[in-house]
Amino acid sequence: MKRREFLLTTAAASAVAALPWRAALAAEAWRTFDITTHVEVINPTGVSRAWVPLPLVLETDWQQSISSGWTGNATQASIQSDGKYGAAMVYAEWGAGERAPVIEVTSRVRTRERSVDLTRSGRAGVRLTAAEQAFYTSPTDLIPTDGIVRDTAREATKGARGDIDKARAIYEWVVENTFRDPKTRGCGWGDIKSMLESKNLGGKCGDLNAMFVGLARAAGVPARDVYGVRIAKSKYGYKSLGAGSPDISKAQHCRAEFFAQGYGWVPVDPADVRKVMLEEPPSNLAIDDPKVVAARKRLFGSWEMNWMAYNTAHDIKLPGASGAKLPYLMYINAESGGEMRDQLDPPSVRYKITAKEA
User: Fold this and answer.
1) CA 306, CA 205: separation in Å to the nearest integer?
2) In angstroms, rounded to a whole number, what is the distance separating the alpha carbons of residues 170 and 172?
3) Most buried residue, 2, 9, 213, 263, by CB count within 10 Å?
């Protein structure tokens, strides 16, 4: 078995060094986690490839990537980036003669509670450049900022002034008008235009938090999705908002942020408010249930960091892939014989992700 280890001071880190995270300082102690992702390409038919997302490479005040490494029988494996957002991944390739392609990636990260105090006065100089403002208010393939998205944003933010007021109005709109649909595959792909046109505002985190991001961008508020995975139980007693076991293979979760001048990037998660309503025991809670009210208040401005971020990337063209662009990179991807495998279909690409607190 070949082994490669590296510290995350790589080209991928350099690619995102200029992106403006600027999170508020957190007060609590760091927690350290080891994340292991074991991947097997089933029934290969030719040259096989796999792409395994890595933790966010840029150090923030709420997450630090310490190191990553891999073992396996790949003929080549290396760290790659999407080239635009700095999304880091391990790219592995196997020759056509390999009948049992396998790779195991292990990463160590530190996380700590994240909260931005929006009651204090903002700080001078905490703002985006014109280029950054344009970047984080621009449309993506599935998140347009014109037409019905723009019209909905205007309605949701009517009377609101400033980044924080507009973002809060959109957050409340998403909480009030969407719902978590357990039948949605994976986390949902975030096709917000189709959701609004069909008036079917159900989905999962990839849909509901994309709705926040799209409406915010359409209202001129810089915003982005942050893709990741839950890695531990919630210390606040929410069974629905944490990993239920060390096996986190199905614990992928997308969050969101907006940028407020004077404050920096502000964490939000309206999708988890709807998750609490649907899944928190005894389930199907009313919107005025105390558990929902508490989550709704807390998830505008803070994240519990029992979760690990991968990246903020949209419309990803995987390096070396023969398939089309992906809406985002939050799952394991693989191809064999020139055909992409269904990343949500375990029989075609088998993987297991585990998390252990060090």
Assistant:
1) 16
2) 5
3) 213
What ranges make up the beta strands (E) of the chain?
Answer: 2-7, 31-41, 48-53, 63-72, 76-81, 88-94, 102-111, 114-115, 179-180, 202-203, 223-230, 252-260, 264-268, 302-303, 307-311, 333-336, 339-340, 349-357
Specify the 3-state DSSP secondary structure of 240.
helix
Kindly tell me the burial class for residue 165, based on how many C-beta atoms sit within 10 Å of its own C-beta (0-12, 13-18, 19 or more).
middle
Spatial CB neighbours of 116, under 8 Å, sequence gap ≥ 6:
23, 24, 263, 264, 265, 266, 267, 301, 302
Q: Which pLDDT value is given to residue 91?
A: 98
Helix ranges (H only) for the chain are 11-16, 130-135, 147-156, 162-177, 192-198, 205-218, 270-279, 290-298
225-250 burial: b if 16+ Cβ within 10 Å, else e: bbbbbbbbebeeebebbbbeeeebbe
Tell me what the mean pLDDT of segment 1-12 comes to. 43
Residue type (1 letter), 12: A
202-261 pLDDT per residue, tens: 999 999 999 999 999 999 999 999 999 999 999 999 999 999 899 999 999 999 999 999
Residue type, 207: D
What pTM was computed for the model?
A: 0.92
226 phi, psi to nearest 5 deg:
-125, 115
| Four-point Cα dihedral 211, 213, 218, 223, nearest 10 | 170
Q: What is the pLDDT of residue 122?
A: 87
According to DSSP, residue 106 is labeled: E
Question: 267, 252, 272, 250: which is closest to 178 by C-alpha?
Answer: 272
